[in-house]
Design brief:
Shape: globular
Strand content: under 5%
Structural class: mainly alpha
Largest sheet: none
Order of helices and strands: HHHHHHHHHHHHHHH
Number of helices: 15
Helix content: over 70%
C-alpha cells in the first residue's frame, strides 16, 4: 500500500470534478441546511487537501450561505465572525496553493472582503495596495467587438447582456455607497438624490426593489420620519416576499444569469430579515408601532414553522 493510500490522499480534482463537487455541495447547503453543507464541504476538503481552487470555492459557499447559518445561530454575531474567519483561512490557503495568477487574484479579492468584514482594516488596505492595476479593457469587451465584426450576433448579444448586468450592479453599488456616505454626513438632500437614482435604475432594468426600499427606510429613520419609515418598511417586506432574483426572462439580461436563488435560499434570506427586524438596534425606534408588529406577523405567515 502506498503512503497516499494510507493517508487517503487524492490529487487535486479536475475542472470537471470541481464543477460536480460544487453542484453537489450547493444542493446539500440548499436542501439540508448550512450545518450539513459545512460538514460535506469539510469532508471534501479532507479528500483534496492540496487543491487551492477547491478551498476558494468552499470559502465562497460559506459566504453565499452565511444568511442560512446566521438565521439559526444562537449568537449570530459570534457565528458570523467564526465563519468569516474560516473563509479567510480558506482564501489564504487557496491563494498559496492556486496554480494560476487569475486564481490567486480571485483569492486575494475575497481575502480583502473577509478582512474588511472582520474589522482588520489595516491588513485589508495593505492587500488592496498590492493588487495589480485594473486593465483598461477586459477580455469580454474585446471579444464582443470581435463578434460584432464577425457578425456573430447571437454571441455578441449575450456578451453585451453580460457586460450590462455587471455594469448595472457596479452602478447600483456605487450609488448605495454614496447614499451611505451622505447619510453619515447628515447631507440628506444628497442622500435622497443618490437614492432616487438608485431606484430609477432598479425600475428601468426590472431589478429587485428591496435594497432601495431598505435604504429609504434607514434614511427616513435618520430624518426622524416614523410614518415614512413604516411606509418604506411595508413596501420593503412586500418586495422581499415577491422577489426571486430570477432574471432569466428579463429583457435586458436573459440568458446570462449564472445562478438563480432557490426557494430555500429565498426562505433563509427572509428568515434572517425577520430576525434582523426583531433584534437589530437600528429598528428600535419602530418596534412599539402597531404597523411594525403587523409587518413581522405578515413575514412570519409566509415562512415555514419555527421561523
Amino acid at each position: 500500500m502506498t503512503v497516499d493510500a494510507l493517508l487517503d490522499f487524492h490529487p487535486a480534482p479536475s475542472n470537471e470534478e470541481l464543477r460536480a463537487i460544487g453542484d453537489h455541495l450547493r444542493t446539500v447547503f440548499d436542501k439540508q441546511g448550512f450545518a450539513a453543507g459545512q460538514q460535506a464541504a469539510e469532508s471534501v476538503l479532507r479528500e483534496y487537501p492540496s487543491s487551492g481552487q477547491l478551498k476558494v470555492m468552499l470559502g465562497g459557499f460559506y459566504f453565499h450561505f452565511l444568511s442560512s447559518a446566521l438565521s439559526h445561530a444562537e449568537d449570530p454575531e459570534q457565528e458570523s465572525e467564526t465563519l468569516i474567519a474560516r473563509c479567510l483561512a480558506l482564501f489564504e490557503q487557496g491563494e498559496a496553493q492556486s496554480e494560476t495568477e487569475n486564481e490567486k487574484l480571485g483569492a486575494r479579492l475575497l481575502r480583502s472582503n473577509a478582512l474588511t468584514m472582520l474589522g482588520r482594516y489595516g491588513e485589508a488596505e495593505a492587500l488592496i495596495d498590492n493588487l495589480p492595476d485594473r486593465q483598461p479593457v477586459d477580455a469580454d469587451t474585446l471579444r464582443l467587438n470581435l463578434r460584432l465584426a464577425q457578425n456573430q450576433l447571437d454571441e455578441a448579444e449575450q456578451l453585451a447582456r453580460k457586460r450590462l448586468l455587471i455594469h448595472v450592479h457596479e452602478a447600483l453599488g456605487a450609488l448605495m455607497n454614496l447614499t451611505t456616505v451622505a447619510r453619515r454626513q447628515k447631507d440628506f438632500p444628497a442622500a435622497h438624490r443618490y437614492l432616487d437614482a438608485y431606484c430609477a435604475i432598479d425600475k428601468l432594468f426590472g431589478l429587485d426593489r428591496s435594497n432601495g426600499l431598505l435604504i429609504g427606510l434607514m434614511l427616513a429613520q435618520d430624518e426622524d420620519d416614523i410614518n415614512l419609515a413604516l411606509d418604506q418598511l411595508e413596501q420593503y417586506i412586500d418586495a422581499r416576499l415577491a422577489y426571486t432574483l430570477d432574471y432569466r426572462e428579463n429583457p435586458f439580461f436573459a440568458g446570462v444569469q449564472t445562478h438563480v436563488p432557490t426557494r430555500n435560499e429565498v426562505i433563509e434570506a427572509n428568515r434572517l430579515t425577520l430576525r434582523s427586524l426583531k433584534e437589530d438596534a437600528q429598528y428600535e425606534s419602530l418596534r412599539t408601532e402597531p404597523r411594525f408588529q403587523a409587518v413581522l406577523d405578515r413575514l412570519r405567515f409566509y415562512l415555514p414553522p419555527n421561523a
